[in-house]
Amino acid sequence: MTHTDATPSEHPSDLDRNDPAAEIAVRAEAYRNWGRWGDDDVLGTLNFIDDGIRTSAARLVTEGRVVSLAQKFDTDGPQKGWRRRINPVHTMTDTGTDAERGNQGFPHGIGGADDYVTMPLQCSTQWDGLGHIFDHGNAWNGRRAGDVVTSEGDLVTGVEHARDVIVSRGVLLDLGRHLSPETGELADGYAITPAELDSCIAAQGATSAVRRGDIVLVRTGRYTRALREGWGEYAGGPAPGLSLTSAGWLHRTEIAAIATDTWGFEVRPNEFDAPAFQPLHQIVIPNMGLTIGEMWNLDELGEVCAQLGRWEFLLSAPPLPITGAVGSPINPVALL
Questions:
Q1: pTM passes above 0.90
Q2: Which CATH class is domain 16-81+120-335?
Q3: How high is the mean pLDDT of the chain?
Q4: Domain boundary assignment for the chain
Q5: Which of 48, 81, 235, 264 could form a disulfide with 213 if both were Cys (CB 3.0 to 4.6 A apart)?
Q6: Closest by alpha carbon to 142, among 134, 154, 150?
Q7: Given this model, what pLDDT does residue 321 score?
Q8: What is the pLDDT of residues 273-308, one digit of tens each?
Q9: Where is the composition biased (Basic and acidic residues) (predicted)?
Q10: CA quadruple 330, 331, 335, 336: dihedral positive or negative?
């Protein structure tokens, strides 16, 4: 573990691959935002979004183009049962057949259809809420995990608090296109470094400059590969993603949120030889207060941004206001 003036290294080669606990701890301490927005805060880095940022972002809409960034929500999804996660189950409770048969009990020939969906809130395109991950029993802002999330749900930082917050300037960093121009796809296990994030910004140009309050979208090409080859191990298996060493970049840029086209946001397998599981999550959610999006569909957006020659847009991605939820399915849209 190499440090300069107590600042954790941003070079993956400096990681002690046999001591994930120490590498996590030093970054959790260095980039902790507890108390930054007061003891009662429930939004974390979403506080960086303000009215000025939103009005400025709205002026980016010049084409009238709307691009959905959601994957499908149906039974043909990536989930394989890990932690009891399933793909959405869509059930009809009233149908056209019922209406034709006249057995719905309605007068004067009116009929209708009704349905419902059963699914984990994080089975497709989604946000991780601030109550989703803990660090040594601590939740966001230093609260005890057991005081925050109980069998009643997230009693403090439920996603409903962000229902009117997550609209801001979006920036796409197409790392797949930047680092692998031949294929547009990064290899599984590829750890994206802070230097590579910066080099992508430099290559894409001024419209991809990352500013305070932005929502950064990172395209790796992993979803593209899943569409071509089948889901395989998309949900939980090897994938490109952010290196643990990117924690400092995520902190100093003061972004409001970040989302990727992968299941887990960070590189998998994680960068250790000793047992480790989602160490970057452990740093940025409970300590930094960063909202993370996963399984976003960034392919069409990548094509549109490349065609238009600009990588910024108005992004609207509010969660469903499900009281006490620690995550939410979403249909994020980019407006250009």
A1: yes
A2: alpha beta
A3: 96
A4: 16-81+120-335, 90-118
A5: 48
A6: 134
A7: 98
A8: 999 999 999 999 999 999 999 999 999 999 999 999
A9: 11-20
A10: positive
